[in-house]
Amino acid sequence: MVLCLLALPIFAILGLFSLKYRKLAKESLDCMFRTVTLRKCRSGLDERIKSDVTGKLMKVSPRIARGFYKNYKLISWILILLFIWATYISAIGVYNYYAYGNCNGENSSEFCILNPTGTGEKHIRDLAEQYGVDADKLIKCFEENSNLGERECLTYCLDKI
Amino acid sequence: MIFTFKPENVREDFSVLNSKTIYFDSACMSLKPKQVIDKMNEYYLEYPACAGRSVHKFGRRLEEEISKARHEVAKFINCKDKEIVFTKNATESINLIANAFDLDKGDEVIITDKEHSSNIIPWLKLQKERGIKVVICESNNDNTFSLDNFKKCFSEKTKLVSVVHVSNLDGVVNPIEEIVEIAHKKGVKVLIDACQSVPHKEIDVIKSDCDFFAFSGHKMLGPTGTGVLYGKFKELEKLRQFIVGGETIIDATFDSYKEEEIPARFEAGLQNYSGIIGLGEACRYLKKIGLSKIGKYEEKLNQIVTDGLNGVKGIDIIGPLDASLRSGIFNFNISGMGAHEVAKILDSGYGIMVRSGAHCVHEWFNKHDMKNSVRASFYLYNTEDEARRFVHAVKEIAQLR
Question: Is the Cβ pair A54, B345 closer than 8 Å?
């Protein structure tokens, strides 16, 4: 059951591109639905995933395989929690990027995966307009001083420009 | 050309085999040698026509090849060509008898408690629809055939005995000659389900004296969609037609029709020509190697596996512990682990393909309150090294618990 929960979002995304994964996603959904309605999961998908992973680990080390086989529920729960945590962090990042042009929050110029070149360009253009300076120059200055915090960087760049 | 049997030489004929792939599911589906595949392709590439109706050269060539295939199959089980009826598989062969043999309300059919679904469901259907009675002959505690129980199953109403020759569950060989003798003394006809025996044993239907004998091509290196029903000619003559249509009649008016000769009267419509020709080639291939050599070799592989796993904690062998009684089938469970789970780990971790499930013997599993099992089945292309690797793998898997 636990592995079905984990598999569902993964197979759902992969299912957008492949019929094979769409079928697996349906199985995961059915399994999850049966679980939440207090019935036994009948697809056997979790068992298949467990066996498949155990088999592959057997090639590496029977001891590791045994560890996985015996603790797969715990491992699955850890992976689920990691997944939920990663989803939460990603959602915040997306919100920040949408609101402030940077996925790390209002006053940050740290690396943002949604904007790998630096602080949000749209946001800097807004700042340039607000302070009446040339937007391209301000963007360039922000890029050159990305090690500074946003506020510090803004003060420095406004002085410089 | 193969004159002496060495598995290493035979393996060259099976292109899917390599050092990383171990195929232990031949009781379900055997692999096909290139000779069989080439022979099947020959039909599509050289004479892709209809048999039995076209007078052109493709038609004539096909007719000739079908006759040759029928002759090969007949030779393979030692009967006359006209006693061979080609079907889709053994299931269809048994269904043909179930529907064409004279069975009425109250008549009894004896089967065993270890039949494949193919040899129980057709009779249960007749029980439901026509009111016949299905009598079950219980096996001994070690799953071997009980002649004493068998003798007790007969009544005045018994019309047919339909039993498996070699069980696909555990490889146990039923004593068909004794079974036939007992049945015939009581005036009862006998149908043998020989799916698991024909690919592995020398068969002589004349010697066994059975009335009908059914088997599939796909378990004996032949193509899928091919099966055979042997019947003593005089018994085939008594059968009603089952599936009718093209090729099963000589002439017809709007009111009636005249039946074709045997065996054509039971082979309705266009047939699986390439499959039939391939089956003939499979018979030739096996005959050349020698069935007795193959059977003995499989028992040797089973002995290696049985010696390696018998007594290992958690491993339960289904059927008699004596490997020589289980032909080339090793059926087992690991306590605390599901059969599908074990099979999947064998596949993904060791490249060993086995069958897991109820093996179409659901009634036996239900009776023994078991869900399913893992079955390894051996054939001529498996090696002793593979058998040892299987033992090693199962032992490692058993330690996962």
Answer: yes
